[in-house]
Amino acid sequence: MNTLNKRYIWTFFLILLAVMVAAYLFNVYGSSPNPKYYRSDNESIECVTVRDSEGNIIFQTGEPVHVEDEYINENNQHYIVTKVSGSEGIAEIKTQVTQAPGPDSKGDTIFSGDFYDQSLPAVAEPQNIHVVIYHTHSDESYIPTSGTASEPGKGDVLDIGKALQSALQKEGISVTHSDKLHDPHDINAYHRSRRTAAQLIKEQPDAVFDIHRDSAPARAYQTSINGVDSARIMIVIGRSNPNMQTNLQYAKRIKAAADELYPGLMRGIFMGKGDYNQDLYPTSILFECGTDRLSKEDAIIAVHSLSDAIVKVLRDK
């Protein structure tokens, strides 16, 4: 092989190597001005708006929405999604008014999960109540506060968990708050957080809370509680969980308590495709605390109110 051919070959490989390095660096460090968020079902989404047949908005959420997903709104009207096309969905009434169980209501459904075969945990004495908190999407932040919706390694949502922990502890509730990171915010986040949840439930808590924030428009989560601006809360339940009804019963009790104490705090209960690791425990709940378009302070005010509802249910008063 002559010298000229060798030069051509080396030049080709050097160019190829440069292209591969450039592609790798772009993949690692490149950023999109409009990042998409991932949930538990292997697809990227933006905010989805679900309407009734007359075009009225029923709810908006950054959660992926599928046909047969369900939603109980703040007035306990129960909807089922019948069509989804891109960022738009259609839903119809499933039940005009769902009779929500009161905060004192106890379910007796047997739960069969990966770790437990039991009824809802027995109501404990106040001094023995224990709750665990973690964050599947530990990067989630609030744009008005941090200037970004995502801060890998230090998401604002960790502070929301701390605020809920503090509020519950002031009421004498024992709390373990895990700040373990599950970044990046991708399709495997729930697989990573499952290990955290499995470790936490070894403590045999009375409830397990996965704290998030939504990515819906601000107006979907804005409210005022006793004259103070606040974010709202949405509960998310995974309908792919074979024991969904047990978790849903517990979610309804929390909503009923919040509706009684702070009308308007709860947006509703979304039942989406997936299990959100709720198959691990019968009182596992996912809370969406505000949206990325509202401030962290609004979300902190919201979880302070939410804590009162949680305490009411935990103490079974």
Descriptive keywords:
single chain, 2 domains, Aminopeptidase, alpha/beta, 317 residues, two-stranded antiparallel ribbon, 6 helices, 11-stranded mixed β-sheet
How are the SSEs placed, and which strands pair?
Elements lengths: L2 H27 L7 E2 L5 E2 L2 E4 L5 E5 L8 E4 L4 E8 L2 E8 L15 E2 L4 E2 L11 E5 L8 H4 L10 H14 L3 E4 L11 H12 L6 E8 L7 E4 L2 E4 L1 E6 L5 H18 L4 E7 L11 E8 L4 H20 L2
Parallel strand pairs: 3-7, 10-11, 10-12, 12-17, 15-16
Antiparallel strand pairs: 1-2, 3-4, 5-6, 5-16, 6-7, 8-9, 13-14, 15-17
Helix pairs in contact: 3-6, 5-6
Quick recap of the structure?
The protein has 317 residues and is an alpha/beta fold. The protein has six helices and 17 strands. It has an eleven-stranded mixed beta sheet with strand order 4-3-7-6-5-16-15-17-12-10-11, sandwiched between helices. Strands 1-2 form a two-stranded antiparallel ribbon.
